[in-house]
Amino acid sequence: MDAKLKQRIALGILFFQSGLCFSTWASRIPDIKAAFAFSDSELGTLLLIRPLGAFIGLPFAGWVVDKYGSNYSSVVGILAFSVSLVLLGLSPSVWWLAGAILLFGLSANLTNISINAQALAVQKNYGKTIISSFHGLWSLAGFCGAGLGAVLISLKVVMLYHFLLIMGTVLIFGLLTFKHLSREHQAGSRKFVFKKPEPVLLRLGLIAFCGLLCEGCIYDWAGIYFKQVVQVEAGLVTAGFIAYMGTMALGRMVSDHFTNRFGSTAIIQASGVLIFSGLILAVLFPHLITAILGFVLVGAGTSSVIPLTYAQVGKNPSLSPGISLATVSTIGYFGFLLGPPLIGFIADLLNLRASFALVAVAGLMITVLATLAKRRDSKAATQALTPS
């Protein structure tokens, strides 16, 4: 087995582990809500801590990747990610829970920036777009993690034991993969500075903002929506989330093929339409089959948005991968930052269906932003070719 393939397999394992950690948390959110007797708005406020921690740590994460190398930061991030899960399971109080969620958000995004910087390095060696396949493994892990969560919940397995099982798996495979990771992004001399993002990064960040707001809606509220609005049995609470993650995984596995054929702009435009259609279907017809179908469409729509924005970062050789990924993610994570509490507040003010309808509009904005960006790029290209 050549070094290039070993790098791809090792990185794929890290993407899978990251998705497994995240979906494990998502599958237990209804249990956490019940254990602490949170209202929708209280849960929304608590869920704000995770993207807040991620947002605070994003500039630092980009600097760490460029300073010490994405191979080191990837392993450190995934190990911290799994440990934070166990701290969540040990929570004896709301304050402990809040601290554990903060660490969860910080470590999740150190992992996110690191493994995506690794993906850009591995992709260069292949000479074609493969980053979506890595994100597909993340989503596949989410599907598996949600399924495992459903089984363990039905068997009444204590949440802490569930989290310990995941941590043990991550520790073993995380340490085994380290020596095979790409060392292209080794320690450098980057300075930790804040500056206004370049226009191309700002455009990508706004698309990521809408995409991550929609993703955050499903990650944090899918179980609650199926429990309170669709009113399914306990064993089917994760059905929507499983359908979403399964379709997202499949979409990311085939995304590279369709992107190469139709172009990234067309795929992003179609993604926004799918997200809007899926959420509206789930809102207008909150029944088991139609809600699951709606979440399937949302999964197909969100599958390509973030991988394609990250891939665009990698196409500009003048931009530092770690810092640029952190910039796009920082803008995008405002979606995660605003989404969970906004959904909770609107649910308390109106209802949860109204919250999901608002998120559907955010999904449609992805199509609008991609269309406007395409027109600007076409206009700029025309002007560049016009003789003065």
UniProtKB/TrEMBL annotation:
Residues 7-378 form the Major facilitator superfamily (MFS) profile domain. InterPro entries: MFS (IPR011701), MFS_dom (IPR020846), MFS_trans_sf (IPR036259), MFS_Transporter (IPR051788). It is found in: Membrane. GO terms for cellular component: membrane. Keywords: Membrane, Transmembrane, Transmembrane helix. The chain crosses the membrane at residues 45-65, 72-90, 96-115, 136-153, 159-179, 200-222, 234-254, 266-285, 291-311, 323-346, 352-373. The keyword DNA damage does not apply. It is a multi-pass membrane protein. Coiled coil: none annotated. This is Major facilitator transporter.
